[in-house]
Structure formats: C-alpha cells, structure tokens
Amino acid sequence: MTAITLEKRGQQAWITLNRPQAKNMLDGDAFVELADAWQEVRDDDDIRVAVLTGAGKEDFCCGGDLGKVIPLWTGARQPENPVEERLLADPAIPEKIMLKGEPLLKPIIAAINGRALGGGTELLQATDIRIAADHAQFALPEPKLGIVPGAGSMVRLARQLPWAHAMRILLGGEPINAAEALAMGLVSEVVPFGELQARAEHYADNVCRQAPLALQAIKRTALETHTLPWTDAFHYEMEQAAAVMMSQDAREGPRAFRDKRQPQFKGE
User: Fold this and answer.
1) What is the pLDDT of residue 234?
2) How far is Cα 148 from Cα 194, in angstroms, rounded to an integer?
3) Kind of pairing, strands 176-177 and 137-139?
4) What is the pLDDT of residues 111-122, one digit of tens each?
5) Strands lying side by side in the sheet with 49-54
6) Which regions are flagged for Basic and acidic residues bias (predicted)?
7) Given the DSSP bridges, would you call strands 129-133 and 189-191 parallel, antiparallel or unpaired?
8) Which of 3, 163, 204, 247 is most open to solvent, judged by the fewest CB atoms within 10 Å of its CB?
C-alpha cells in the first residue's frame, strides 16, 4: 500500500493521504510521494484542480511521523529503502510538500475528513478552498514538544487569519473544532462527514468549468501581491489581467455567452 494515492478523474487530481492505520501521519514514503504528486499536478496540463484528503473517517493528517522521520534525519537510523535515501538526498522535499518553494498555481481543495494536527494543519494552509467534516479538529501542538510549527504556519497563518485567531492557534497549542475553524476563517465550509465527498466534488467540478489561465492568474496575483504596497500590487494585477486578456480563452468566454452555450476553455 502506498502512503499517498493520486487518482486522476478527468481534469481533477484526487490526492489521498493513505496511512489511516497511522493517523495519516507523514513518514518518509509519504514525504517523497506527496512531493511527486504535487509535481505531477503541476506538470500535467490536463489537470485543472487538485483535491487533497485523508483516508478513513478519523484523521486528515496528524503531522509528521516523528518516530520514523526524525531518526532518519538525525542519523539515528539508516535509510531502509530507495525512497528514504531520496528523502535524505533532497533536503528540499519537506518544503515541496508544503508548497513553500515553487507555488502550485492550480486551485487546491482540501476535504478535511478528520483531525488535522501539527503538520496536518500546516498542510491545509497550502490549500485554497477547505471543506471540513463537522468532527474535524485543528491544532499546532509543537510548542508543547519544545519545537515550532516550521512547515509554513509561522508565516502563513497570521497572513490568512486575523492576528488574535492566528496567535490563539500558534501559541495556545490547544485544538479547535470545526465550527471554531469556520468562524475564524481557517476553513471555507463545514459539512457532515457523509456529505464531505460530494461537497469536494461540487467545488472541483465548478473549478473545472472556469477558464484555467484566469484561475491561475488570480491565484498567482493573490500570492505575489499579499505583502506588496498597494501601487505595486495593482500594477502586478494589471500585468496579469493583460496577459489573460490576450488568451484564446478570453475570446471563447464572450463567444459562448453570446451563443448561449457552455464555453470550451483550453488553457490557451
């Protein structure tokens, strides 16, 4: 059984954290396989949206499997297979799985099927639309262990949430439930577990109806201008808008509207 599964459903890539017996924690195999999955989504022009979820009904992801990964990184044990050898050989893999280096401009939907603790909460911050099952929980307990949530949360969370909410999660270490996460803005929607798959499919289908170049330009602009001064941000926005306006999709959209038909966007 692989630690990560990638299923392509037409224009959608469904990525599942597949270690339910271990709370979907990220071991060496999961690190490498998730990095590869993100790269495949990035490189495949036919894929327009990715959906990230966890296997089972209890856990989305309870962080890194410290008992397996930390000893490997510290040299306390030697790699046991080629995947672990690759993890040691490429120190950028932890950043790749959290999309901290090269951003993934295609929309990412998180279907949070249960607890997202530590690295699980950090991972979902790299996604765009977040649907949580109503029993989901979120926490960054790293300070209780004498470490920090250094996989993106110390930067991302205070930019994504109001300061007081971000600090409650970062400094408190206590879990918050799905309703609290929704009120804070950490997730987009909360649904009963039985409806989670259908809601994720709804959002993914809707994304696939949009023009892919337009969506990527929107996400790129949001990421790149988040900390820019207003004037610079608006200038960057106009550059992105002008580039999209020159695309074939920008011609197809108005034609389809005029002809009262669904547009056939090709990402060109």
Assistant:
1) 96
2) 34
3) antiparallel
4) 999 999 999 999
5) 4-9, 12-17, 49-54, 108-112, 129-133, 189-191
6) 249-268
7) parallel
8) 163
226 to 63, 70, 156, 216, 235: CA distances (angstroms): 27, 33, 11, 15, 13
Q: How far apart are CA 83 and CA 96, in angstroms?
A: 15
3-class DSSP assignment, residue 38: helix
Active-site option among 7, 122, 195, 239? 122
The Cα 176–Cα 140 span in angstroms is 10
- Separation CA 226–CA 162 (nearest Å): 14
Annotated catalytic residue within 142, 174, 224, 252: 142
Decide if pLDDT at 49 tops 90: yes
Decide: 265 and 252 in contact? Cβ < 8 Å.
yes
The pLDDT of residue 147: 86
Q: Does residue 122 have an active-site annotation?
A: yes
Alpha carbon 111 to chain centroid distance? 10
Comparing 114-128, 178-192, 223-237, 242-256, which segment has the lowest mean pLDDT? 242-256
> How far apart are the C-alpha atoms of 48 and 267, rounded to whole Å?
9
200-209 tens-digit pLDDT = 999 999 999 9
Spacing of C-alpha 120 from chain mean position: 10
Q: What is the model's pTM?
A: 0.93
Quote the tokens at residue 86.
């690759």
